[in-house]
Amino acid sequence: MPGGRAIDKIRLLDAQTVNEIAAGEVIERPASVVKELMENSVDAGADRIEVRVEDGGIRRIEIIDNGEGMSREDALLAIRQHSTSKISRIEDLTSLSTYGFRGEALSSISSVSKVTIRSRTGDEEVGTELVTEFGSEPELSSVGAPVGTTVIVENLFQNIPARRKHLASAKTELSHIVATVTNYAVIRPEITFDLVSNGASLRSFRGPDRVSRIAELVGPKAAKRLTSISKQVDNVEISGALTKMDVTRSSPSSIHLFVNGRPVASPLLLSAIADGYGTRLMRGRYPIGYLTVTLSPGLVDVNIHPTKREVRFADPEHIRELIAQAIEDAFSDEDATPRFSDLMDYMKIGKAPEKLETPRLRPTVQARIEAEASESGPLSFPFEPLFQLFKTYVVATGADEDSVIIMDQHAAAERVQYESILRSLREGERRSQKLLAPSILELSPDERAALEENIEHLQALGFGIEPFGGGSFRLVSVPVVLGEEQGEKALKGVLDDIAKIGRRRSLGEEIIWKVACHGSIRAGQDLSRAQMRTLISDLLQTSNPYTCEHGRPTMISLRIGDLERLFKRQV
After folding, report:
1. Is 437 helix (H, G, I), strand (E, B) or coil?
2. pTM higher than 0.70, yes or no?
3. Which residue of 147, 367, 503, 511 lies most exposed, with the fewest beta carbons within 10 A?
4. Comparing C-alpha atoms, which of 113, 150, 116 is closest to residue 130?
5. Which of 154, 180, 205 is the last residue of a domain?
6. What's the CA gap between 486 and 233, in Å, rounded?
7. pLDDT, tens only, 315-324
């Protein structure tokens, strides 16, 4: 004000407000409390951790461990801000191998709840009980207690109504706690974990290794479909176990990701996994299992987020490539032909199968395919086509004398076309053949926009597309692998697809998928015996004959035993 004293705009916050703000960064919900306290238990050397919650952890959370425990002095210091047993200087942050800072977690939690700590070390006769409520001065007393630590957190965020009202339902909060406990149970198989909700046992993890822990989650049938992942280059180790491409889920929530033993949420790692599966996995589907990345602490930053759920790698593309290659190597020899009998198992309960057994080709048949595929000329074929079913499926003799193969002709043709296009790009083969009469492309505004966005990719595949004035284009050549008729149909189909779904951006490799799809034999198309034989022969010479580029199966195996089960000749 003129002639007067300026009003102060900057002021120091009181200690309680500072604590509550800090708590808000670390403690987002009850699951955050469970995470922090379990990490403390792990760092304390516990091999048994019990988590008890009431009302999704909103009303009460109790973590019981048999770790080394805390003395009275340590318990008192543990709830103080910036107290820790993990580091003594700033340089220690780059080599930290434990989970977190015991004092930082307890200080934050105690500022937004009532906290009771009971703990005893092995060299003490009596334990210590500490009680503090919403940051109040702690009350200390001596109690009888087993070696280890019990932390009870009650009435979370009761002193911050605005935060408490934004918590989800008890059911939703409990689901987050289940996910948190599950993650640590997978990465720490040497520790027994028990989760109890409202007095009822919800989860109990006792498997001796990570694969056993995954089996406890998904059941023994799906667990049999796990494939080990392993790769080590210099200071980076990739390990894990992921299901084969016939056991998938509609979301990535069943993939447990870890970096240096810490559960993380990482779009980079999920993307690398998808790259590794490639076209073996149906788009929109995800495997089950776990993947862990172990590297020098200095090569990854785990402190970019207060909860440490996110990480930043010093060389993210190197990590992506290692993961993708490790997964590709693990599944390179996988036979993913689903068994019809496994489909039948699920018909009884009316839901889609989560597990499909995949018998391998007999060694003699496999050897014949490989030997003849390496020679010039067409494959003289171990599977003889019998007939076409519903103008969509080809039925052929199977790999064994007591089986037949049922092949989806469109999916099979897609795989053949997709790999033909990739091979022509990789080997620099002649990609285009000129049309005898160039075709004027009649395009809607959306199709024209899709073409303009993707014209470089289409030209690289062998489509000769030229501007023809007034916003028009003409097609002068098509990819050799497609031929004249199929090439023009494929281009129009691709542009129509993109326009219909409103995507005008450049699609890159997805263009190859779409071209392969539209340039392939369709469902409902009559095939001669010679065409069926050629199609299956071409399919068996691809690098992955078991799925199309979208990850759908190209064929299933039907055995005589499957028919006998259908007709009740055997059980």
Report:
1. strand
2. no
3. 367
4. 116
5. 205
6. 45
7. 999 999 999 9
